[in-house]
Structures are given as C-alpha cells and as structure tokens.
Write a structure and sequence with these properties.
Mean pLDDT: 93
CATH superfamily of the largest domain: Pleckstrin-homology domain (PH domain)/Phosphotyrosine-binding domain (PTB)
Low-confidence stretches: none
Number of helices: 5
Strand order of the largest sheet: 1-2-3-4
Shape: elongated
Strand content: 25-35%
Number of domains: 2
Number of strands: 7
Helix content: 40-55%
Radius of gyration: 21 Å
Length: 155
C-alpha cells in the first residue's frame, strides 16, 4: 500500500513538503513501558512472595496497556499523512474509513500555528489553515509545524 498523496497527484503536481503526526502520541506507551520495567525490577528486589506476585501481575497488566498504546500510536501515525504540493495542501487520516481535506494553495488566506511550551521544545503543534471563504481546517499535533507553515506560505 502506497502513500495517499502518490495516488492523487495531478499531472505536473509535485510534493514540496510532507509531515506526520508527532511522536508525542507514543508518550502514554513510553510511560507504561517504563512503569512495567520498574515493576519488574521491584519484583526482583523483594523477598516477600506475595509482593513478588503482585509486582509481576501488575507489570503484566501495565505491559499489555503499553502494547495497546504503542500499537494505537503507531497505527495513528501510519494512517495519517499531511503534505504540501505546489498546488494544494492535503491531509488524510484513517485506514478503512478515510477522512481527507484538500485546500488549493491559491485559496489559503492564513496559516496559524498553536504550540504549547512542550510543543515548542519538542517541535510539534496544531496548524489551522483559513481559506478565502472563511472556512478553516485544523491539523492537530503535527511534527515541525513552522516548517509546514513556511512551505504553504512561501510562493
């Protein structure tokens, strides 16, 4: 299965910039894996058999949650594409059910970037594209939002 943008390019259209959902989506999974490893280490540092079993059972439950969150974040990043071509901005999410929007570059009125402090430190944020018809589309939590905005506004 190829990229969505490759399937919809028009003759003479070129991809100028591609970005994806930021890796911050993995943060719950990372926290769960750290907690599972901590519980495993704790199970090795105690001599009480009941406490060992509790730590091992808890580590297994937390590891299952970590696996779920890892797969969920990976799937979200795998099924999300955001691209700027020389003619339009294209955003696609979803696998079986697909949600897309396309905005012609000539119809873009403004591009706004919203970043939290953590977003500025880790280089992610929300981008809102406003069109000439005063409609707006928001792309949440993408990587390198300022570079994305620059590729839309540079003409």
């Amino acid at each position: 299965m190829g990229r969505y943008i490759d399937d919809i390019l028009q003759p003479g259209e070129k991809v100028l910039y591609s970005t994806n959902a930021h890796w911050i989506f993995y943060l719950p999974a990372i926290a769960a894996w750290i907690a599972a490893c901590t519980l495993l280490v704790l199970s090795r540092t105690t001599l009480n058999e009941n406490l060992i079993l509790l730590c091992l059972a808890s580590a297994a439950v937390v590891a299952l949650a970590g696996l779920y969150w890892s797969l969920k974040a990976w799937f979200h990043r795998w099924t999300t594409e955001t691209d700027v071509t020389n003619l339009r901005v294209v955003h696609k999410t979803g696998f079986i059910t697909r949600k897309t929007f396309e905005i012609g570059i000539d119809k873009v009125a403004s591009v706004n970037v919203n970043q939290s402090i953590l977003g500025r430190l880790l280089n992610y944020g929300d981008v809102t594209i406003e069109t000439m018809g005063e409609a707006e589309q928001t792309i949440p939590t993408i990587a390198s939002p300022l570079a994305f905005r620059s590729h839309i506004t540079a003409r």
